[in-house]
Structures are given as C-alpha cells and as structure tokens.
Fold this protein.
Amino acid sequence: MGLSIRAYARHRGVSHVSVLRAAKAGRISQEPDGTIDPVKADAAWDAQTDPARKAPAPAPEKAAPIPPATQASPSPVPQRDSLPSTGTNFTQARTAHEVAKAQKARIQVQRLKDEVIDRANALALVFKLARQERDAWVGWPARVAGLMAAEIGIDPHVMQVLLETHVRAHLNELADIKPDFH
C-alpha cells in the first residue's frame, strides 16, 4: 500500500495540486487503489520533470539510528525501463527544442549575411537564364545561315533549315536537364 496524494505531496515537499497534475499528465503513476508508491513515483518524477522547475530536495527527517543488526537491505531502485513509457522524457524534449532553436538562429544569421539563397528565387533565376539561352540559340540559325551558305556555296534556305533542325534537337536534349537544389 502506498501513500495518499497529500501524504506523497508532503513526502516530496510540493503541493498536492502538483502531485495531482503529475499523475494526470502521466509523469507519475498511481496504484489501482489510488495511492502512490513513493519509490516508483520519486524515480518517475525525477526522470520526467524539468530540472529548472524541481523543488529543492526536502530535508531528511531526523530519526533514531537503526542498529546494524536490524537494518534491512536497501530496496532496489526501479530501472528506467520499468517506468511507464511516455516517448521521450522532458530533458530529451528540451534538448531537441534547444537544438532546433540554435539551427533556426544560425540560418537567420546566414540570411542577414546574405549567405543563404531563397530557393524560389534561385529556381526563377535559373528558369529565366535558361529561357534567355534557348531564345538566343533559336534565333542563331537565321542570323548565320546566309553567311555560312555563302562560305560553302549552297542555298541559304537549305542551310537555315539544317541549322534549325540540329539546334532544336540539341535544345530538346538540354530540356531534359532539371535543376535540383536539395
């Protein structure tokens, strides 16, 4: 049989409301009869409570020393695995939160220093440059076909059609290349 909620609160040095909240949140467990096993509850409380919010440890009560012959062997402290699983404990969650805040701050500093490029703007710029390059290549056969035809002595229209065919085939090959900014 364990302690009542108020007795456990006195044992812990906290208010009974704190104990009720801890039990409701699943940080400590109650026995089927509603009492609290102080050994299990102390271990769970210590493992899953924010260290900054812990109450100072209660002063040990002064009791008459027990003669060595009648001392019982100390009861083993329950292992962490025997406690109810709530996913991660508070310390792990707090650590993950602090790491995320640090990463966010680092990215903000990099943005202020113009070391980070906006993905949408980069994609738009690449698209714009690729379109300008394509347009320049599409217009090129019309500009140079007459000069090239005169140099080799063939019909300028035939030369322009040949150049346009090969330039468009090459541009179709280049269109399959997709920028990847991951």
Notes: The chain is about 60% helix and 0% strand. The chain has a mean pLDDT of 81. The chain has three domains: 1-49, 87-116, 119-175.
